[in-house]
Amino acid sequence: MFAQVFDFDGSASEAELREVVARCERLKAHAAAVQARATALWADKRRAAEAGMPAAKQARGLASEVALA
Questions:
Q1: Residues 1, 21: Cα–Cα separation, whole Å
Q2: What is the band of 54 on the pLDDT scale with cuts at 50, 70, 90?
Q3: Which of 16, 39, 54, 66 could join 12 in a cystine, given CB atoms 3.0 to 4.6 angstroms apart?
Q4: pLDDT in tens, 14-51
Q5: 66, 58 in Cβ contact below 8 A?
Q6: What is d(CA 31, CA 7) in angstroms, rounded to the nearest whole number?
Q7: DSSP 8-class letter at 12
Q8: Chain center to CA of 35
Q9: Residue 58 above 80 pLDDT?
Q10: How many Cα atoms within 13 Å fall on the side-chain side of residue 49?
Q11: Ordered alpha helix ranges (H), 1-69
């Protein structure tokens, strides 16, 4: 799936290499946006699952879980 995204010819022109870099930047931006939305939804679901617990204890450790994911 990603092979074509990251594959380029070593003899590519500067314009072609610029397009490779631009393609990677677009992919990186899209991945970051998806990750942010998924993380926010995960936090919402965790808070809902821990409803009734003191607020200070809700979603505790979630940042570590996200970092390890």
A1: 18
A2: confident
A3: 16
A4: 999 999 899 999 999 999 999 999 999 999 998 898 88
A5: no
A6: 19
A7: -
A8: 3
A9: no
A10: 9
A11: 3-6, 14-49, 62-68
Residue with tokens 């617990």: 53
Look up residue 21 and give its two tokens. Answer: 């870099």
Evaluate the CA torsion angle 34, 36, 37, 42 in order and state its sign. Answer: positive
Per-residue tokens: 5:
């995204």
Segments making up each domain of the chain, as ranges: 3-68
What CA–CA distance (Å, rounded) separates 18 from 14?
6
Dihedral of CA atoms 31, 40, 69, 57 in degrees, nearest 10, equals 160
CA end-to-end distance (rounded Å), the chain = 21
Say what the pTM is: 0.71
User: Whose structure tokens read 């809902």?
Assistant: 48
